[in-house]
Amino acid sequence: MSKQDFITKKKRLSGNKKSHAMNHSHRVWNLNLQTVTIILPNGQRKKVRVSAKTLKSLNKKKIKNISLALARKK
Q1: Angstrom distance (rounded) from CA 37 to CA 39
Q2: In this predicted model, what pLDDT tens digit does every residue of 40-62 receive, in sequence order?
Q3: d(Cα 19, Cα 58) in Å, to the nearest integer?
Q4: pLDDT at 2 over 90
Q5: Among 73, 74, 70, 66, CA closest to 44
Q6: Residue 42 — φ and ψ, nearest 5°?
Q7: CATH for the stretch 13-73
Q8: Of 10, 14, 40, 58, which cross-links 5 as Cys (Cβ 3.0–4.6 Å)?
């Protein structure tokens, strides 16, 4: 499985960590991915990885069907 949000297609970000002494070193910011079961437009259930932020917004809007989430995204 890739480290990517299934709905929003967000991936990890990369950048530099900078200390007080102005030393730079490479680092990454990973997503907070959670495994959830969703309902596809054809009625089939599938386990996918969704970020916690996306999951929170889906729960807030009370969206259970993934086709509704994808339609609202466009």
Answers
A1: 7
A2: 778 888 898 999 998 888 888 77
A3: 37
A4: no
A5: 66
A6: -85, 5
A7: 2.30.170
A8: 10
Structure tokens given for 42: 């054809």
Question: Closest Cα partner for 37 from 28, 47, 27, 29?
Answer: 47
Residue 49 pairs in a beta bridge with 35
Q: Is the pLDDT of residue 12 over 90?
A: yes
CB 56 within 8 A of CB 50: no
Q: Whole-angstrom Cα distance, residue 1 to residue 47?
A: 11
Residue with tokens 């990885």: 49
Length of the chain: 74
The answer to whether 27 touches 17, Cβ cutoff 8 Å, is yes
